[in-house]
């Protein structure tokens, strides 16, 4: 009872904090950047990370197993993963464009996890025999970390496409408030931009607004490529460890279960992204389009398949509650 109450409190505290953080981010996008507000939002995300961490540890203690046995627990772990992606650049004193995206993603996942739709699976249950394995932590955690990184990288690619489209429609438009994000560059970003100047060499740099916009596009491409590469690595490890686990549990490395099939499709899509992104003969928009498609594929793989409630991974499904 005590653990359940503590879990309930921590869940709602983390959701409340991240709601305040996203509000601060929206304010800083609409008006000039306020250092104190930005610092408060970063500390808020750290507090959210700590709350979710304590929540996961608490659930692990009283359930007796790693909390990744159903959709509710995986959503909480997804929020934790997104929080990690958010705070790593902060501790490295490296300014990136992930903050708004990760904060929005955390509030979405936390909001859905705390909603009444998943009430029936909030309580931890005894693991089904197929999940009673040491591979649970390895496989599921790698998959969720991969989903988190790929979602963030895909959203950066979506932002890149939006800016590119607006640039082509109106190259003389007034400076967007988002462009203030490009004022600080790391050494790696500067080196990267110098290497890829030929890709955007046909831009009209006689306009300062176009110059700032082109820099921002290149930064978005820089970060999306690196975050997606990390997510692709996690996804690959997750699929391989899942295959080994499946052979132990079901006697076959691959069963073409709906979850497995869509995980493979996700892997293929982002493999295509990495191929197009590293091909210097193709423009950045081509790889960004592939990554944007991957954003939808990830949600189908992670969430959409659970709506079916069929296959070997049906323990991750849920039913919508009605009043």
Automatic annotation (TrEMBL):
It comes from the Eukaryota. GO terms for cellular component: chloroplast thylakoid membrane; plasma membrane. The keyword Nucleotidyltransferase does not apply. Residues 68-313 form the Cytochrome c assembly protein domain. It is found in: Membrane; Plastid, Chloroplast thylakoid membrane. One of its GO terms (biological process) is cytochrome complex assembly. GO terms for molecular function: heme binding. The chain crosses the membrane at residues 12-32, 44-62, 74-91, 138-165, 223-246, 261-276, 288-312. Its main location: membrane. Keywords: Chloroplast, Cytochrome c-type biogenesis, Membrane, Plastid, Thylakoid, Transmembrane, Transmembrane helix. The keyword DNA damage does not apply. It is a multi-pass membrane protein. PANTHER family: CYTOCHROME B_B6 PROTEIN-RELATED (PTHR30071:SF1), HEME EXPORTER PROTEIN C (PTHR30071). May interact with Ccs1. Required during biogenesis of c-type cytochromes (cytochrome c6 and cytochrome f) at the step of heme attachment. Belongs to the CcmF/CycK/Ccl1/NrfE/CcsA family. This is Cytochrome c biogenesis protein CcsA. It comes from Changium smyrnioides. The gene is ccsA.
